[in-house]
Structures are given as structure tokens and as C-alpha cells.
Amino acid sequence: MKTALILGVGGLGCPAALALSEERPDLRLVLVDPDRVERSNLPRQILFDESDVGQPKAVVAARKLPNTEARVMRFEPSTAAGLLQGIDVVLDGTDDAETRFFANDECVRRGIPLVHGAAVGWTGQLLTVVPGGPCLRCLFEAPPEDAPTCAQAGVLAALCGLVGAEMARAALQVLGGRPDAGILHRWDARRGTSRPFRLSRDPRCPACIQAPPGRTTAGESDMPITVKIPAPLRPLTQNLAEIAVENAATVQAALEELSRKYPGLKDKLLDDKGGLRRYVNLFKNDEDVRSGQGLATALKEGDRLTIVPAIAGGWI
Amino acid sequence: MDLSAEQQERYSRHLLLEGFDQEKVLQASVAVRGKGRAAHWAARYLASSGVGRLQVDEPAWRDELRALGPWLQLVDDGELVCAPTDEGAAAGALAALETLRQLR
Questions:
Q1: CB within 8 A of A146, min separation 6: which ones?
Q2: What is the DSSP letter of A124?
Q3: H or E element in which residue A110 lies
Q4: Distance of alpha carbon A31 from alpha carbon A13, whole angstroms
Q5: Left if phi > 0, otherwise alpha if psi is -120 to 50, otherwise beta: which for A182?
């Protein structure tokens, strides 16, 4: 049984939990919130009504939804490890930037997919963070100091409903193995518009540096460079067919990084003068690097490098 | 129409929103079309946002909607039509949002 951890049972956590529960009753939900229901919460926190005012949010919500457990606590350094144990996806609908960045860092560090949602005023946003993809800190290095809160700028209840329901959809996509990763979705409810922004990973991101190595999501752009290894070379790569290489600006740098990880490879790919062996073809995406600048061909994140052995004999 | 102290507290986040007219919402009359999940979500958010009169096609939602909107009247002749064009929770919330946009 899969388990989703929902941080914050407020304007976003309520609709996210309700939508997940409606769509996937078999999914186990763990609801985390230290706060109690207030009357000003009610328009957007639709699991609650007047009779719930003063009760702990997580407990009330868990009573109303099946297969759900309450944790009346804050997500913070002393509770994070316990709360994240055995969790398949995290939905963050908390209301302060510090907790959001902490949740981002913890999920990235532990390789747990995270769906980040936010709504304030007339604006909503959503970002799915998966291992190897851009994270919240790639986008904003640190919590903003003067970001308006809902208590200052107000927030539209139905916009929270929309973002919360979209968070549930994004979490189900993660669990289904097809995450909507690396795209920041923003809604402008005043204009009635929404826009996707494709994000890139920041190679200097302080959160991503702590991510577990070798975890990438193949097929997504904005990822490190992926090198495809042909079957004859896989004995040298512990049978890996794909290897992620980070921070390689050129084909040469990617091959060096690859050789550092798997020392046997270098001799197979490069001749004793350091040039590309004659019988090795290298394709950047779908283009032979020999038709570009050879080993000096530039690479960017998301590029795919394919090693293709010559077909008619002569393979080393 | 003056908001009561209880209404001011309940709808305080809407009252802070520039360009949102809570009084107009409290006086609005909306007909939600459909009995599916999207219509259910639209009705929930219209009720919780304070829409004064609401018409729904599914009688089973009535108790829940009354709890979400303490001043809500359930009627048979809603005026402004809210008809989700897609299925699912997000489509319902979006339809509610579009209806509220028309009440500015």
C-alpha cells in the first residue's frame, strides 16, 4: 500500500486530501498539522465546518476521511525523519516559507518525490520535485524575507481548491510513475489564466548537492546528461544501460567523468592520444558528435549522449 | 448589506483580497449543473465562499453544502449558471473560480 504524507491540513491540504481520498481510497494518507481550526479558515478548508472550530485540524480531517492518520505536530528537524519513514510522496501545503524550504531540502536529500503547492492572493503555483529534477531551491535560493502571507494579502478559497486538487493529481502522477516534474505551474485567478514554466536544475543548488547520487528520472528534460551504454560495454558499468553525468560542459568532460566512475571505459572509448576511437560513434541527442565539434561539442543539462558501437566488426 | 461580525471573521481572507466583492457573493444566486464529481466540487466551493442562493441537481449534497455555507439557501431557480466543462475535482474548483470571477 502506498502512503502519501500531507504537510499542512489547511487551504491546500484539505482539498488535496479529499481529492486523493475520493480517487484512490486504497492510498494511505498521513496528515500533519500542529494547528487548530479557526473560523477564518472555513471558506477554504472545506473538510471543516463551524462545529470543528477549536479542534486539531489533522484529527478532524482524519476522522472525516477513510484510511487516514493524524499527526498533530510541526514538520521540523526533530520530527522529519520519523514522518518521512516509508513515505512514497509528500504533498506540501504548509503556510510558511521556512517549512517549505525545509521540506524541499529533506525530500531532495532523501530522494522522496515532493509536490509543492502554494496560493496567496489571486495567485497559485504548483511544482513537482523528483530525484534528479529541479527543486524549489533551484528556483529560489532561500526563503523570501518579505513574501506576503494569506493573513496579510488574503486568499481566494476556490483558488486553494484548484491548487489542492491539482496537487492531488500531481501526486497520483508521481505514484503512477509519470511525474509532471520540472514544470512550475502558475495560476492567475484574477485574469483566469494559467502558465507552465519549464525549470532547469541549478548546478550550484545547495539542496541538490546533497541528493543521493545516481538517481535520475529518465526521459525528463532539465535533468543531468544521460549517457546510454551499449550492451558490449555494460560489463564495465555494473550492467547499467544508462548513467547520469552531472556538470559536464562538453562531450570530453562527460567521458572523463564517466571514466572516473567506471575506470575500464576510458580505454574502450579513447585512443592513446586522447581522441575518440575510430570505431566508436557518439551521438549527442540524435546527432553524431563528429559532425559537430567532436569531443569539444558542448553539452547542456538534459542532453542524451549515446555510445554506439560500429556494426560491422571491428568493435575494439 | 452589512456583514455581521461572524461573517467578517469567516470571510476575512476574502475581504483582504483586492478586487473581490464578498457582499455581492453573499447576494448571488447560482445554479450548478450536473451530478458528477466536478459539479460536487464546484458546489462545495461556491457554498464555502458564501454564495447566498445555490441550486444543485444532487439532493444528497444538501447537508454538506449547508454546513459549508451557514447562510446558504438551497433554491430551485439559481440564476448564474456554473457548469463544469470537464470531469474531476480540479475542473469543479476551476468552474467555481470562474463563477466567482463574474461576481466582481
A1: none
A2: E
A3: helix A97-110
A4: 8
A5: left
What residue type is assigned to position A261 of the chain? K
Q: Which residue of A has its CA nearest to B64?
A: A49
Among candidate residues A49, A57, A56, the one with its CA nearest the CA of residue A12 = A57
A89-92 sheet: strands from edge to edge: A68-71, A28-32, A3-7, A89-92, A114-120, A123-129, A183-188, A193-198
pTM of the model: 0.76
Task: Give tens-digit pLDDT for A118-144.
Answer: 999 999 999 999 999 999 999 887 777
The Cα of A25 is separated from the nearest Cα of chain B by a number of Å equal to 15
Share of chain A above pLDDT 90, in %: 56
Residues B48, A19: C-beta atoms closer than 8 Å: no
Q: How far apart are CA A314 and CA A311, in angstroms?
A: 8
For residue A191, the chain B residue with the least C-alpha distance is: B101
Q: Is residue A291 within 8 angstroms of chain B, CB to CB? A: no
Cα of B76 to nearest chain A Cα, Å:
23
B50 within 8 A of B30, measured Cβ to Cβ: no
Does the beta carbon of B71 lie under 8 angstroms from any beta carbon of chain A?
A: no
Q: For residues A14 and B41, what is the distance between their CA atoms, to the nearest angstrom?
A: 12
Residue labelled with grid coordinates 476522522 = A63
Give contacts of B98 with chain A, Cβ < 8 Å: 192
pLDDT in tens, B8-25: 999 999 999 999 999 999
Report helix, strand and coil shares of chain B as percent, to nearest 5.
50, 10, 40
Write out residues 191-210 of A within 8 Å (CB-CB) of B: 192
The DSSP letter of residue A145 is S
Residue A110 has φ and ψ, to the nearest 5°, of: -95, -5
Do residues B43 and A161 lie in contact, with contact meaning Cβ atoms separated by under 8 Å? no
C-alpha–C-alpha distance, residues A85 and B65, integer Å: 37
Residue A238 near chain B (CB below 8 Å)? no
- What is the ipTM score, two decimals? 0.98
Separation CA A272–CA A277 (nearest Å) = 9
DSSP structural state of residue A295: G
